[in-house]
Amino acid sequence: MKKIIEVSDEGLWELVNEIEKLVGMLDNTLSGRKPSIKDEYYLTDVELSSLLKISRRTLQEHRTDGTLPYYLVVGKVLYRESDIQKYLEENYINAVKDITDLI
User: Fold this and answer.
1) What is the CATH number for 81?
2) Which structural domain range is residue 59 located in?
3) At what angle do helices 45-52 and 56-64 cross, to 10 degrees?
4) d(Cα 21, Cα 24) in Å, to the nearest integer?
5) According to the per-residue pLDDT averaged within each range, which of 33-37, 40-44, 60-64, 86-90 is highest?
6) How many domains does the chain have?
7) Cβ-Cβ contacts under 8 Å for 63 (sequence gap 6 or more)
8) Quick check: is 98 in a domain?
9) What residues does 76 pair with on adjacent strands?
10) DSSP label at residue 37
């Protein structure tokens, strides 16, 4: 036997909002992302070296020469994701589309 449940529009929207929050939390969990701090994500040197396909030593060289911003917290190196994105965008080299671009 099927039952019909009546819900007010307001109650329905509250339920929909709660479901959307849960889906967002599940997406973060499934994607392996760590919780953000003030809407910023931080990567360890192991995570960043794996992501960029470079060695941890190369990351250390970039830290030492001051080209890559980082945080040092109780001996652990952390990189803010937005800083890495900015660094990559600043070092982007556009492909040559036409020979006239070379002249």
Assistant:
1) 1.10.1660
2) 10-90
3) 110
4) 5
5) 60-64
6) 1
7) 70, 77
8) no
9) 73
10) B
